[in-house]
């Protein structure tokens, strides 16, 4: 069987197992993200062995953990070679994660030039304001989404951070920690010294947490951390691919509220989820934790009732329930393990997770931010 024919056959078998179109697979997507669990991997390996001219084991999905690596494995006829110019076989007995890679000394090494500015001043001026607040983006990567916020205060400057990979999400393969390093110099350019205030919505909470760690390591002080509907990674999983597809297909994701979110948003959101899947944060030492950590949660789910919504999702996944179902008044949700011994504040806003910067819900976010920032 020719190399390309074998790849097409393999992806068709895997696509059928996952109920996904093989043409939609991206080389950087991991099997874990695509929903290939242990039992399904075992059954799919048997189907691949029957369809191809060489045996495939369930562990091969761990040795070649993403689509691109597995395609090279198939093209090599199942030979456990180093896959020239590709990803080498991962020894699954290694104590390192199959997805773990060394971070370059220069975080910009290999990163294409951003197509949008890294930062946008949304309110006030950094040069003459009393308090500057840096807001990190959600999975869309657009810090400009905070531009719908009502005026917070005369002495407050809001700066939104844009992802370096907006409009080029195919190049977004960075870890959460490396993304934080990409933003660090931009933040310090706008505020070289002083007491920092950071915040972020959803994945933006992870970014702001990691930037906090970087600033503290550099001898700076972070006065306040604002976590906006950001589920702690110690408690909540990364969003499964099937859920991303269901939300996109049913018009439940994206700031426009359109039937389908813009393709650039879907691509960046998918890349973000892949990065979150590899992310497992470590705690700050108690003396380094910001003096104030504020939580702003929504209480509404994306649907009123999952059972009658028509969505095909696994409610056994905590983060799926977090997004879809109505909630009570959440508190620290595991963040206390990463940010011990500080003063926690809690507030709640209207809307669901994807409506946070949409009118009219953004007004209630603005109200919560005023209570936090206007002393």
UniProtKB/TrEMBL annotation:
Instruction: Provide the Thioesterase domain boundaries.
Output: 132-365
Question: Which InterPro entries does UniProt cross-reference here?
Answer: AB_hydrolase_fold, Thioesterase
Q: Where is this region: Disordered?
A: 89-110
Superkingdom assignment: Eukaryota
Q: What is this protein called?
A: Thioesterase domain-containing protein
């Amino acid at each position: 069987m020719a190399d390309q024919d074998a790849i097409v056959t393999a992806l068709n078998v895997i696509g059928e197992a996952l109920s996904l179109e093989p043409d939609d697979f991206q080389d950087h997507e991991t099997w874990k993200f695509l929903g290939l669990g242990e039992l399904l991997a075992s059954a799919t390996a048997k189907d691949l062995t029957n369809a191809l001219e060489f045996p495939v084991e369930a562990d091969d999905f761990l040795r070649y953990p993403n689509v691109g690596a597995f395609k090279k494995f198939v093209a090599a006829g199942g030979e456990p070679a180093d896959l020239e110019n590709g990803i080498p076989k991962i020894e699954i007995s290694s104590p390192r994660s199959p997805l773990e890679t060394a971070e370059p000394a220069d975080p910009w090494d290999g990163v294409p030039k951003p197509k949008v500015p890294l930062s946008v001043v949304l309110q006030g001026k950094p040069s003459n304001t009393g308090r500057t607040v840096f807001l990190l983006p959600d999975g869309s990567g657009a810090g400009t989404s905070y531009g719908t916020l009502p005026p917070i205060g005369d002495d407050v400057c809001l700066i939104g951070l844009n992802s370096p990979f907006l409009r080029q999400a195919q190049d977004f393969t960075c870890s959460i920690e490396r993304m934080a390093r990409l933003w660090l110099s931009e933040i310090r350019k706008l505020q070289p010294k002083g007491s920092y205030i950071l915040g972020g919505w959803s994945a933006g909470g992870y970014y702001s947490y990691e930037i906090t760690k970087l600033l503290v390591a550099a001898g700076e002080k972070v006065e306040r951390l604002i976590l906006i509907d950001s589920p702690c990674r110690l408690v909540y999983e990364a969003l499964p691919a099937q859920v991303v597809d269901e939300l996109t297909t049913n018009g439940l994701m994206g700031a426009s509220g359109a039937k389908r979110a813009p393709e650039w948003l879907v691509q960046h959101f998918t890349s973000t989820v892949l990065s979150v899947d590899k992310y497992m944060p470590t705690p700050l030492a108690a003396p380094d934790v910001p003096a104030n950590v504020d939580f702003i949660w929504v209480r509404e789910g994306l649907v009123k009732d999952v059972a009658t919504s028509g969505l095909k999702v696994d409610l056994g996944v905590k983060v799926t329930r977090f997004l879809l179902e109505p909630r009570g008044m959440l508190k620290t949700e595991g963040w206390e393990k990463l940010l011990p011994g500080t003063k926690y504040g809690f507030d709640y806003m209207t809307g669901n997770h994807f409506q946070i910067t949409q009118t009219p819900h953004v007004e209630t976010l603005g109200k919560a931010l005023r209570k936090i920032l206007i002393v």
